[in-house]
Design brief:
Elements lengths: L2 E3 L2 H11 L5 E9 L5 H17 L3 E2 L2 E10 L3 H14 L4 E3 L4 H11 L6 E3 L7 H4 L6 E2 L5 H4 L3 H7 L5 E7 L2 H17 L2 E8 L7 H6 L6 E5 L2 H13 L6 E3 L6 H4 L13 E4 L8 H13 L11 H19 L5 H13 L1 E4 L2 E5 L5 E12 L5 E12 L7 H6 L15
Parallel strand pairs: 1-13, 2-4, 2-5, 5-6, 6-7, 8-9, 8-10, 10-11
Antiparallel strand pairs: 3-4, 12-15, 13-14, 14-15, 15-16
Helix pairs in contact: 2-13, 3-4, 7-8, 13-14
Length: 416
């Protein structure tokens, strides 16, 4: 396996070995720059630009130029963006999309474009790589169920939350998040009493807030972006004071750095995902500094959000493999794709490898929201678990028997 150390020092070494060139390689990018996930997409693009900075803006001896297309988190918008980049602009390499249902749509579209290589940005629905995967679609981030491993057990055993209700955006990624949380929590002994679903882009949460049970120990929030902020504002206005459990994007930096005081309700909220802001790891710290140095303070968050990190990893893998093949994408990208499939990444968030479906195996972090010494809300590192695969460590046949994530699946039971 090729080993990738995503550090500034190695990026500089790779660039030096390639030498200068006037040629340009254009890479397409899809990110949610419209709609409720706009702020997520903006930091995802920062992650790509941070990776470019690490590699000096070059790969395979060529200058890299980004061609960015906006989406709004809907599958149709993602396919429109991909068609523009592939069929009109003629680009060979695409990074993206960001959101779960977008990823499923791009997986399907990629099968119609075998001459293009697609590297997922951050979309985390299980189905994208688990069901009928595409040979030219690679995902360097773990999915939403993998992000949930250990959280249910933590909140049951350490926080004492024996009953919870869940609220989630009504689409594939949050189904995947709740799937992973439910497996973990219910096997630990917890009970999920109610599951509420809201459309992506919900403005008014009054009816949901009124329906929340008051006899549960905590509420799990599977919301993100503008939806997360709107819920927090309205929940506080309604006098809500329940214990909260955060889905990964509910407590991401894109929410923790939002305007207003509503976010302060998240202090003390446990969560899980593929990064923890206060992790005391040298590679993580180096990446955070690189992100901070790449943008002026007024144009970024105090430190990278989850979306920045995932797009960073996708881009770092892409640029490393372009260097490996000297920018040669002939023979239907055969050498390039072989590198992508077999690379071993020592990334800012731990070791990442791909399985046979080109799906990441990686690390999940348990964290809790705190206010740091600078007055910023961050996810404080609690613990981590490495090497989590897409079947969550279960036997493949047993995992398949559970069925795919949905509004009601899995049922909450003590064994599966």
């Amino acid at each position: 396996m090729k080993k990738l150390m995503v550090t500034t020092a190695l990026g500089a070494a790779l660039i030096s070995a390639q030498g200068a060139s006037a040629e340009t390689l254009k890479i397409g990018v899809m990110a949610t720059l419209e709609g409720t996930y706009t702020v997520l997409g903006e930091d995802g693009v920062r992650g790509i630009k941070t990776a470019l900075a690490a590699f000096g803006g070059k790969a395979g001896g060529k200058d890299i130029e980004l061609v960015i297309q906006s989406t709004d988190a809907s599958p149709d918008s993602a396919v429109r963006a991909a068609r523009k980049l592939v069929e009109q602009d003629g680009l060979d390499v695409i990074i993206g999309p960001l959101s779960g249902s977008e990823g499923i749509a791009i997986r399907d579209y990629s099968k119609t474009q075998p001459g293009t290589t697609f590297i997922n940005g951050s979309s985390g629905a299980m189905e994208t790589t688990y069901v009928d995967p595409s040979d030219n679609f690679f995902r360097y981030n773990t999915d939403g169920a993998q992000w949930s491993v250990g959280l249910g057990k933590y909140v049951f055993e350490e926080k004492g939350y024996e009953t919870v209700a869940t609220i989630g955006e009504d689409y594939s990624f949050i189904y995947t998040q709740v799937f992973g949380f439910a497996l973990d929590y219910c096997q630990a002994g917890g009970e999920i009493t109610d599951r509420f679903w809201v459309p992506l882009g919900t403005k008014d949460f009054a009816s949901i807030i009124a329906a929340l049970p008051d006899d549960v120990d905590a509420i799990y929030l599977g919301l993100g972006g503008g939806d997360a902020v709107n819920f927090l504002n309205q929940y506080q206005q309604a006098g809500g004071d329940a214990n909260l459990i955060g889905g990964t994007i509910m407590v991401d930096g894109t929410v923790l750095n939002s305007k207003g005081d509503a976010k302060n309700a998240l202090i003390g909220t446990p969560s899980s995902g593929p990064q923890a802001d206060t992790w005391d790891d040298p590679t993580w710290k180096e990446y955070v500094k690189l992100y901070q140095d790449t943008f002026p303070p007024e144009e970024r968050f105090p430190q990278p959000s989850l979306l920045s990190t995932l797009y960073y990893n996708a881009t770092a893998a892409t640029l490393t493999c372009l260097n490996e093949v000297n920018g040669d994408l002939s023979d239907d990208h055969a050498a390039f794709r072989s590198c992508l499939a077999n690379i071993e990444m020592d990334s800012p968030v731990g070791k990442v490898t791909l399985d046979g479906n080109r799906q990441a195996i990686g690390t999940t972090f348990i964290s809790e929201v705190i206010e740091d010494e600078n007055g910023n809300l961050v996810n404080q590192f609690i613990s981590l678990q490495e090497g989590i695969n897409q079947t969550l460590g279960m036997d493949a046949a047993k995992f398949a028997s559970l069925g795919l994530p949905s509004r009601e699946n899995p049922a909450c039971q003590s064994s599966y």
